[in-house]
């Protein structure tokens, strides 16, 4: 049965842990698995800009013995003359998997519904689940177990990153806090899904407008750009609203003394994070960026294994 990875809760807690363990193995022994040997091709499609995702998928697919085919939508028929569903039908006859960075989550749902190869969300307006696999791997490396840790996100609560922290953190049994202005609160259905997952894993969810409450004794302090891709026209309004949610030295001082700071990057120093924090001793952003490679390789290995073993969801 074809498994897809469109949002963080497409993986059960056990599956998420299995992929993180595999990522640790692949980080130790980078060229140990060659499921794409042939080479088989993986299509990696970008409707939006990227540095980390583009590089880590290209390098990771090559590490696995495969051939990455990087497609910019601007230079393809997708989104212009051709639907996502028709594009997927063409690709699936030739590639082992489809990785897509796009705007609407519905596009990913549309192609995965009619496709026989795994589809991976490389960031949509609603979720960035590949980033979360890398983040959880990084937190685990620095803190040991994930379950029971408090992970606090500050800024745009309605963003892809906030939504993914809610779902992936709850899946890992973490206490997830989102501090955001009321008008940028996370989507109610995502919060409800995270709460349901957290009840089963022993985690918890807190959504608040109070950044100090979210920071108190937190183990992991996180922010992201205030102006996600596609929201550039709202920049002035967003900068005005999010000012109180900047992660600065004062806010870090409220967290646990051994708290780490994370940011998926790219970052706007002086806006969502003070330079002294992102470039300071508690920041683990470069490990986080590197771990995109290892986490995504593990995800691809796991998805391809599901294809071959025919495992059910
Ligand atoms: N963090 C992340 O996804 O970075 P890119 O936009 O550079 O891929
Ligand atoms: N929230 C950001 C993440 C970038 C990796 C965006 O969507 O632009």
UniProtKB/TrEMBL annotation:
Its EC number is 2.1.3.3. It catalyses: carbamoyl phosphate + L-ornithine = L-citrulline + phosphate + H(+). The lineage of its organism: Bacteria, Bacillati, Actinomycetota, Actinomycetes, Micrococcales. Pathway: Amino-acid biosynthesis; L-arginine biosynthesis; L-arginine from L-ornithine and carbamoyl phosphate: step 1/3. It is an enzyme of class 2 (transferase). It comes from Plantibacter elymi (nom. nud.). Belongs to the aspartate/ornithine carbamoyltransferase superfamily. OTCase family. Residues 148-303 form the Aspartate/ornithine carbamoyltransferase Asp/Orn-binding domain. This is Ornithine carbamoyltransferase. Signal peptide: none annotated. Residues 3-141 form the Aspartate/ornithine carbamoyltransferase carbamoyl-P binding domain. The keyword Cytoplasm applies. It is found in: Cytoplasm. SUPFAM superfamilies: Aspartate/ornithine carbamoyltransferase. NCBIfam families: orni_carb_tr, PRK00779.1. Keywords: Cytoplasm, Transferase. Coiled coil: none annotated. Carbamoyl phosphate binds at residues 50-53, 77, 101, 128-131, 264-265, 292. L-ornithine binds at residues 160, 224, 228-229.
